[in-house]
Amino acid sequence: MRLALGYLALMTVALVAPASARAADKPVAASDTQSMFDRLTAQVATDYDTAQGGFARRGMPATSAVELALVLANQTDSEWQSRALWTVDWTQGLMDTIGGGFIHSVNDPEMARLEKRTNSNAQRLENLIDAWQVTGNAAYRRRAAGVVDFFERVLLDARGGFVAGQIGDRSLEPAANGFAIHAYLRWAAATGERRYLNFALKSVDRVWQTSWDPNGGLLRRGTFGEILEYPQLEDQVEMGRALVLAAQLGKRPEDLERARTLGELLLVRFEDPRGGFRTQSALKKSGEVKKAARVESENSRAARFLCELAAVTRASHYGDAAARAWTAFAKEFEKSGPEGADWALAMRVAMNPRVVAVTEPRWQAVAKSEPMSQPRSVQFKTGRR
Q1: Contacts of 321 (CB under 8 A, 6+ apart)
Q2: Most buried one in 90, 95, 258, 316, CB count within 10 A?
Q3: Whole-angstrom distance between the N-terminal and C-terminal Cα of the chain?
Q4: 210 compared with 224, residue with greater pLDDT
Q5: Given this model, what pLDDT does residue 368 score?
Q6: Residue 102: which of 86, 83, 84, 123 has the closest Cα?
Q7: Which residues pair with 217 in a beta bridge?
Q8: Element (H or E) spanning 322, and its range?
Q9: Each residue of 85-100: pLDDT tens digit?
Q10: Given a cut of 70, is residue 364 above it in pLDDT?
Q11: DSSP state for residue 117 in the 8-state scheme
């Protein structure tokens, strides 16, 4: 009931918001999406550099570029596939062979060993799942299982949800959870193990319970529930993508309703009149949204969410907002590098909504003795003194 009221409140705001503050009232710019897609894929291809790690920048793999390359690899001898797999294999060098999990970056390795973030581990887990499914090579499955093991030992909260990284507090950050839940859902579908689906849905409920505010959206809160920041675009986007996939696999109506709520929130509170989305939503005393920066990497992820939401709900206004975003950033595409892959992946869905369709997994029977996902504890025995 509370969720429905929150959705209706957002819809009411959308109806009464001033036209000057709503880019959604503007017509979609005429553009050749296929031409933009071709430009972006060509740009991603030229940024491949084995000296830097393949599809990588600043010591980190560009996971979306790997995802795009595997999507474009239609044949086993495809150049896109070989480049994607080369990057996935290079990324294995960032794996902590002692404690498990990927360090965030090859730069400053001493500090990086402590910086094993949930978002980067989740994205690299999805790359491994894609590599396994495209090639059928069981080695990629084993590597992916090792990352899942790290999640369960270090990053998972048994009550539901994931912490943002190996170090830091135990608060649930919506963006980090969006990445992790999406990866867990992918792993559940790939392996047919329903317990991963169950934990992902449990995590969705807990994040929504602890972070959702009808007046602001998903918020980052501290240990005592205090609000730490204004509503952030990436929190709404990454949880939104997780909710779309959760609705398809878990078949719970409330998950799709939550995704729609976040989609409307983006259009009402985050969309910039110039096109694209603000990185945060802070209100003036007048009720208007304050000006804020538009970050390309966050906008390309927002476009992916909105295109996926449009494909599942068949509501075209979400896709129209995504198109306005990439039109606003089109002049910057030549500078996007591997990060331009997110734009391309969004456009791919816009051109063919059927690619987001999820095949019902063949769920394995769950053994009665099989424990649910929870952190493991290790006891050390010492000699007598």
Answers
A1: 23, 24, 266, 267, 271, 306
A2: 258
A3: 61
A4: 210
A5: 52
A6: 123
A7: 213
A8: helix 316-328
A9: 999 999 999 999 889 9
A10: yes
A11: B
